[in-house]
Amino acid sequence: MLPYPQIDPVALAIGPLKIHWYGLMYLIGIGGAWFLASRRLNRFDPTWTKEKLSDLIFWLSTGVIVGGRLGYVLFYDLSAYIANPTLIFEVWKGGMAFHGGFIGVMIAAWWFGRRNGKSFFQLMDFIAPMVPIGLGAGRIGNFINAELWGKPTDVPWAMVFPPFSDPAQLPRHPSQLYQFALEGVALFLILYLFSRKPRPTMAVSGMFALFYGIFRFIVEFVRVPDAQLGYLAFGWVTMGQILSLPMILAGLGLLWWAYNRPQPLKNTAL
Length: 270
What we know:
This protein has 270 residues and is mainly alpha-helical. The protein has helices at residues 21-44, 50-76, 78-83, 98-115, 120-127, 131-144, 175-194, 203-219, 239-259; strands at residues 10-14, 17-20, 159-160, 171-172.
């Protein structure tokens, strides 16, 4: 069994002002995406300025934060937020849903693309390789917050999370680290290598949807579902799996359509 590193969720406190690691992980994710987008900008569109890229990152970040929070409220704990709506604003305590954030990003990409002469999938193909940076950083934030841990296990790398998080004090799968490895590192490498060669429009987006959905679906088998939801069917199906299945199907559909319709190759290479 591995010891859980006791990391204070508050990275820095200056009087009443507290800066949480969870919030810093979002800044790291946005900053990393910005850096990668800057490297890819000339190949995506040489006419785009850094200012236009800054505008894109701003709207995408807004989509992530607003969509992620509203997605958690709607998909995972609606009754609690109806009872106490002020909880919606306490984002430093966690409670962000990837699928909601993804919807927020899609809306922001559609809106920004219409205003800047780009199709929805042109922008999504450009954005997709950046997303795992934020996903990986967010999972590290979950780990520091000692939230979203896995089922009890006797594997050698099991961890006992702090009592405030897990009163049962059982050795558990560190599922946050599994998601960091799969949704962050592995997904980034897949999309990085795939997008280095010219691909038809929608192919990079399809790869993202397919592999994120697969990775999330797999990890849900060892991750404890949110207590207020539990398992939704057959004693093992979780909300995360239900929301990921359409992504897998959409990814397969996008890849099939991308490679089976006539169109010129577009270089989205890094």
